[in-house]
Amino acid sequence: MNISTDPWVWIASILSLAILSFLYKENPFFRAAEHIFLGVANGYLVTFYWHRILMPILFRPLFQQGDLLLIIPFIIGMLYLTRFIPRISWLVRIPIAIYMGYWTGVLIPATIQAKIIKQVQGTILTAPNFQSWNAGTMGIVWSVTVFIGVLCTLSYFYFSREHKGVIGVTSRVGIVFVMIGFGAAFGYTVMARISLLIGKLQYLLGDWLGIIR
Amino acid sequence: MKIYERLMTIDRRIIYAILLVVVTLPLVFPSVLKVTPMTPVEKLFTAVDNTPDDKALILDCSYAPQIKAEVEPMAIAVLRHAFKTRKKILVLSLYVEMIGLATRAINQVVEEFNSVAETYEDSLIYGRDYVFLGWQPPPIVPMLGMGESISNIYVVDYYGNQTDTLQIMQKVKNYNDISILVALSGSTIPISWVAYAQNRYGLRVGVGCTAVSGADFYTYYQTGQFTGLMVGMKGAAEYEELVEANHGVKGRRVASEAMLSLTYAHLIIMLFIVIGNIGFFLHRRRK
Amino acid sequence: MKKRIPLILIFVAGLLGVISFVIPHPSYQVYDEWMRNDLLRVLSAFAVVLALGSLLRVHFDKIRRKRRNWQYSWLLLVAFGGSAIIGLFGGVAADGILPTTVRSFSFDIQTLYENIVIPLASSMFALLAFFMASAAYRAFRVRSTEATLLLTAAFIVMIGVLPLGYSISKHLPAFVQWILNVPNVAAQRGIVLGIALGVVATSLKIILGIERAWLGGGE
Questions:
Q1: Partner-chain contact A38 C146, CB within 8 Å
Q2: Is B70 in Cβ contact with A195 (below 8 Å)?
Q3: Among B142, B126, B206, which Cα is nearest to B175's?
Q4: Minimal CA–CA distance to B60: which of B125, B20, B16, B106?
C-alpha cells in the first residue's frame, strides 16, 4: 500500500467519494460536490471560449486587425443578450433563427445521404453486398436476412395501419429482430456501466490508496 | 417470508456490496486474461497501420469525462500506435468539456516515448510529429471546414501557436492529406463525421465508441461508412493487444487489466437476473 | 414582426444550408465558408454567454430569495468565479499573466479540470453500474417470448464479447459477431431509417415555419 501524497489526488478522491455517497442516499456532501462540479466546469468553459474563440476569431481580428466584416456576427451575437432585457427580448430569436436555420438546412441532405441512401444501399440485394460478408454463399443468406429484417422492423414501427394480415405477420417477424437488437444493446450497456465503475475504482485503489499499481 | 419472495426482494444494498466486492477483488489480485481481437478492431488497426508516409491521421478525442474509463484507453492505444509507427497525427476535440482529456492522453503518451528516446530524431517533437489542434465550435465547423483548409479553421492550436507555421501543416492542408480520421466518442459524433466530412469530402472514418453505442454503430460499420470499430473497454483492450503484439509497444494496458473485473461483474449481474427470474417462476407457479 | 422576421430568417438560413450542400461551386463556397467560420462560430460563442448568464441569474436569484438549498449556490458561484479567474488570467496552458504555481503546487485550469471535473463527472457515471445491476435484477423478467429472446441475446453478447467467451468456445465470439452484424444490424437499420425520415421531416417543418416551438412563448 502506497498512499498518495499529492494534495490534488486527495481532493479528487474525496470529491469522488462525496458523489458515490449518493448510493446511500442524497446528502449534503453529494450536493456540495455537484455544485462545485457545475462551477468549475463552467469556469473551464469560459476560459476556452475567451482564449480560443472570442479573442482569436472575433475581438483580435475586429479591433486589432480591422476586419470590419466581423462587425456583423458581433452585432447579431450581441442580440443573444437581449434575452435579459424584457422589452426587446424577442430579438434573441434572430441569432437563434440564423443559427438553427443554417444547421437544419445542412442537416437535411447530410441525413438523407448518410442515413437513408447509404443504409438502403447496404440493405438491397446486390452482388457487392453479398461479397462484403466474406462468407461465400452464406453471404447471400445474411444479406437476405438483413433485407427481410429491415423491412419487417420498419413494418413493426408502422402504426398507420392495424397490424393484421401481411403487416401482422411482418411485424411479428420484425419484433424478433428488434428484441435481438435490444438484447445486444443491453448486453453492451452492462459492459459500459461496469467499465465506468472499474475506471473509478482503478483511480481510488491505484492513484489514491496505492493498493493496485 | 417464502423462498420465492426472498429471491425476488434482495435488498439493493446487498446487490451494491456484492457488485463492489466482485469488481474490486480482481483489481487487487490481478490475473492476465488473453484478449483475442475481433474483426472490426483489426480493421481499424490495419487502416491506421497502413497510413502512407505522405498522409497524416486525425484523432478526434470527443469523449467526456463521464466515459473516460471506457474511451481514454482507446486514445492512448491509438496514440501509441501512431507514434511508434511514426505516423503524422493531428489531435482535436469537438467539445470544450473534452479538450482536457485529449491534453491528458497526449501528455501521457508523449512522455512515455520521450522518456526512452535517445536522440532528437527518436523524440516526439511538437509540430514535426504531432499537432494538437485543440477545439473549435460548433462541431460542424471543423467537420466541413477542414475539407477546405485545416489552418483556416484552427487558426491557432491548443497552445496558441499559429497552425500554418507548424512543420506538419506545411504538407497537411485539408482532408486530401488525411488517410483516416479516428473518432473516439460516446455520442453520435462519428455518424456526424460520416454525414458531413465523408459524404462531402470522402474522408475515411474509423470509430472507437462506448459500449452503449456499440450495437447502434454496427449498421454503419456494415455499410463500410465506418472503416473499423472498437467498442467499449473490451474494444480498447483488443487494440492494446494489437499494438503490443504487432509493434512491441510496452506500457500500462488499463483496459486489459480490467478484463477480469469486467468478466466477474458480468457473471454476477447475470446471476442476479437468473435469481430474480427463479423467484418469479416459483411465484407464478404458486399462483 | 416579432415572429415574422425570425420565421423569414430561419427559412432563408435553412435554404442557404441546403444549397451549400448541393452547390459546390467555389464562388458560393467563399460565401458559405464565411457563414460557417465567421458568423455561426461567433454566434455559438455568444450562445454560451447567454447560457452562462442564465445559470448565474438562477443561482443569484436562489440566494437572494433564500430558496431551498440556497447555500450550495454560493459554492457554485465561488467555484465558477475562482476557476474562471484562473483560466482567464492564468491562460489555457498556464501561459497567462496570473502565476498558477506556488512552489511545486500547480492550480492552472488543466489541473483543476483533471482533479475536479474529471473525478466528479466520472463518479456520477460510476454510480450507474450499481443502479443498472439493481434495476436488471428487479425488472428483467422473462414474462413473454419477446422478453426471452431479448434476455437470451443479451446473455450471449455479454459472455461472447468477453475473453471468457473465447475460453468457452472459439466459435462463441464469432457467433456474437454474427448477431451484431446480421439480426442486430437489421433491427438498428430499421430504426435508423425511421429516425432519419423523422429528422428530415422535422427539419423541413422548422425551416418552413410549421414547427414554431423554438420561438418560445410570448408575442
A1: no
A2: yes
A3: B142
A4: B106
The pLDDT tens digits for A4-53 are 999 999 999 999 999 999 999 999 999 999 999 999 999 999 999 999 89
Chain center to CA of B100 = 15
In this structure, which amino acid lies at residue B178?
I
Read off the pLDDT of residues B81-127 as tens digits, 9 standing for 90 and up: 999 999 999 999 999 999 999 999 999 999 999 999 999 989 999 99
- CA-nearest of B150, B153, B149 to B137 is B153
A52 and B156: CB-CB below 8 Å?
Answer: yes
Distance of alpha carbon C189 from alpha carbon A138, whole angstroms: 20
B114's grid cell: 520521450
Number of domains within chain B:
2
Q: How many CB pairs under 8 A join B and C?
A: 139
Mean pLDDT across chain B: 95
Taking 70 as the threshold, does the pLDDT of residue C219 lie above it? Answer: no
Structural domain that includes position B150:
35-252
C168's CB contacts (< 8 A; 6+ apart) are: C159
Q: Are C162 and B266 inside 8 Å of each other by CB?
A: yes
Q: Do B230 and B74 contact (CB within 8 A), yes or no?
A: yes
Bridge partners, B183 (sequence order): B60, B207
**Which residues of chain C neighbour B160 with C-beta distances below 8 Å?**
92-93, 95
pLDDT number for residue B6: 84
Residue C209 gets the label, from left (phi > 0), alpha (psi -120 to 50) or beta, of left
Task: Tell me what pLDDT residue C218 has.
Answer: 64
Give first-to-last CA distance, chain C, whole Å.
Answer: 9
pLDDT digits (tens, 9 = 90+) for B29-68: 988 788 999 999 999 999 999 999 999 999 999 999 999 9
**8 Å CB contact between A197 and C126:** yes
What sign has the CA pseudo-torsion C86, C88, C92, C98? negative
Q: Are residues B192 and B130 in the same domain?
A: yes
Residue A119 to residue C81, Cβ atoms within 8 A = no
B19 and B104 inside one domain: no
Chain A positions in Cβ-Cβ contact with residue C47 (cut-off 8 Å)? 80, 95, 99
**Per the structure block, which three cell numbers stand in for B27?**
483489481
On whether any CB of chain B is under 8 Å from the CB of A106, the answer is yes
Put simply, the chain C residues between 165 and 184 with a CB less than 8 A from any chain A CB are 178-184
